[in-house]
Every structure is written in C-alpha cells, then in structure tokens.
C-alpha cells in the first residue's frame, strides 16, 4: 500500500509555470506506475500524464501539447509535474495517483480506475 500527498499548487498568471510534487510513502515506490489527473468544477476527472515504474516511458494527454513534463525520482519517492505556458483552462484540482499495475500505452491505462491510490489533490488556478 502507498499513500501519496500532492503539493505545489497555487495561483499563477497565464503563461506562467508551476511544478507539482507528489510524495509517496513506503519503500516500494518503484513498484508503482504514477499518474497525474485533474478535475475542474462540474467536470470529470481527466488524465494529464503518467510514467511507468522504471521511468522509461511517459504518456501525456493531447491537451498538454508539450507544455507539461512528468518525471519521477525513485530515490526520493516523488513524482513531479512541471507545467509551463499555463492557460486559464488548466485551472483545476490536480491529483496524483499510483497504480500497482504498470503502463502499456493502452487507453485503459489513462482511466482513473487503473489507479489504486490517490492523493487529496492540489488546486491550480491560472488567471487570465
């Protein structure tokens, strides 16, 4: 079992940057694929980015368009989401999630049900 805690959200102007962090508990962090999702008010929780257990493959939602970068540091039990060129439509609560199943590039891998453990979320607000 793993617990994850997000941090790094806040208010930023359009065009600005934020780096979200997700710290995981436990000694088996490297056994989990990690993902970021986001949820805006009144909308479903959407996939943003994910990284495999060994950090060899990363996946991104189309709307990221090269603006976001996911990374992980297994020595620190942490996964990051670097967000650049932020837009007002990026405003949402961002969630970190861990999956005991690895990622294989299938559509199911980007569905929230693929993930077993979730953080409480961190608010990102992008002002126009």
Explain the layout of strands and helices:
Elements: E1 4-7, E2 10-13, E3 18-24, E4 33-39, E5 46-51, E6 58-60, E7 68-73, E8 78-83, E9 92-99, E10 117-118, E11 122-127
Parallel strand pairs: 2-11
Antiparallel strand pairs: 1-3, 3-8, 4-5, 4-9, 5-6, 7-8, 9-10, 9-11
What's a quick, concise take on this entry?
With 128 residues, this protein is mainly beta. It is 0% helix and 46% strand.
The general outline is: globular
- Which percent band covers the strand fraction? over 45%
How far is it from the N-terminal to the C-terminal residue, by CA?
40 Å
Helix tally equals: 0
Give the overall average pLDDT.
96
Order of H and E elements: EEEEEEEEEEE
What is the tally of beta strands?
A: 11
Q: Taking Cα atoms only, what radius of gyration do you get, to the nearest Å?
A: 13 Å
Percentage of residues in helical conformation: under 10%
Question: What are the main properties of this structure?
Answer:
mainly beta, four-stranded antiparallel sheet, globular
Report what the structure shows:
The strands form two sheets. Strands 2, 4, 5, 6, 9, 10 and 11 form a seven-stranded mixed β-sheet that branches. A four-stranded antiparallel β-sheet has the order 1-3-8-7, with no helix packed on it. It has strands spanning 4-7, 10-13, 18-24, 33-39, 46-51, 58-60, 68-73, 78-83, 92-99, 117-118, 122-127. By secondary structure, it is mainly beta. Helices cover 0% and strands 46% of the residues.
């Amino acid at each position: 079992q793993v617990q994850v805690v997000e941090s790094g959200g806040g208010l930023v102007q359009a065009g600005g940057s934020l780096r979200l962090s997700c710290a995981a508990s436990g000694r088996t962090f490297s056994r989990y694929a990690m993902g970021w999702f986001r949820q805006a008010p009144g909308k479903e929780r959407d996939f943003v980015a994910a990284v495999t257990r060994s950090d060899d493959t990363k996946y991104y939602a189309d709307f990221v368009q090269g603006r976001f970068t996911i990374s992980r540091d297994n020595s620190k039990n942490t996964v990051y989401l670097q967000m650049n060129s932020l837009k007002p439509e990026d405003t949402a609560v961002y969630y970190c999630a861990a999956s005991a199943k690895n990622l294989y590039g299938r559509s199911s891998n980007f569905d929230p049900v693929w993930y077993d453990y979730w953080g409480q979320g961190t608010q990102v607000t992008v002002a126009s």
